[in-house]
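Sorry, explain these tokens?

***
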Amino acid sequence: MSHLITLFEQHSYLILFMGIFLELMALPISGEFLMSYAGYFVYQGKMNYILALLTVFLSGGAGITATYWIGKAGGYKLIEKYGKYIHLGPERYKKTAAWFERYGSKLLIFAYFIPGIRHFTGYISGISKMPFKKFIIPAYLGSFLWGLCFITLGKVLGPRWEVFHHAASKYFVIFIIVLAVLLAGYLVYRYYKNQIKDFLIHFIQGLLSYLKTVRKTEIFLIFLTFVLIGMVTLMLGMAQDYLYGEFSQFNEITEYMVESAIYRNWMKAFLVFQFPYAFGAIIGITIIRIWRKGKNRVLEFLLLFVPILGARLFHESVLQLFSFLESIGFVGKIHSSNFPDLLSTLTIIIYGTCLFLLVRHSKNNFIHLFGSLFGVILLIEIAIANIASTEVLPSDIAGGYVYGGVWIFFNFLMFEMFRLVLEKN
């Protein structure tokens, strides 16, 4: 690989073209590595972005076209002669070919992104006698998207591209497992689709019948429960990463992408939303809204003030728990004493609680949707501004959001359950 990199530095476009072409001929070459490295060269000004994309488009298209014609010219003879040794005799092959002819063109676009699959897609398409006019458009479109993703990624990451490439390889096994599960699920559906359809129809009918007897408040409680479970799961995962010091790559890549590709000077204005007067303003608006609504005022005020006033106690409890775990041996390589970030925790608790109370009783679904999107976008913009303008680590900010989210959704669930009990009594 080091020799290939040396050649790449001397003959960038030629090596990129040949590397992609030969990989699609089923040679053991990493196309993603070459394309992300080409993106790094684009970042350095050693290669032209448009020409690099064009090179991948042409080489990918040429490679998969060559394998298509190879498969179409002699592939079926090999199946007839040797297919029985791999349980792929002519009869079984005809069924496989019919399936691939029906669905294969839709999969061609995405096949490039799956190592071990893209190498044989062209051969299988040719052997399956897929018409060339049906093959060429998705094949070349997939080649373009493949190159666009990895060259752009290398360009955006710049000198951090190798770190990202290494980090991504850690999760490749997980990706393969997920892919295998999805494929198994598809095969199960393909062979048992009638039974599955009957089951789903009966299940949906039963669910709808049940929901007719359940009020909106109870459905809302079920939704809050699932969200809380998801948030707690994410919180535990982040705690494990923190204790074992596994945030370094996340921090490095996030900081670089924010500073080089996302952050703009005007985004610094979002820091004002973390000033005390901004917190006071949103709390004041919520108090006025609760008072004017005039229903369940005591419960609404408790739901407003308990999460906010209890935020520091909750944050301190988390820090004490981490301190205890560290004292018994859970010490990571890189530790931040600021995890989870207190200001980020307060931010999501205050804005999350206030927005929840402001839109909770509205009958307009547009307000529910707009309020949720506004809250998410605001939190993202505040996080970006903090990463670019302060010394706070991205992992600390993400931790503050996740841990604060657990706290407010726990309170939402408890108070909504209490509300339901009061209504029944």
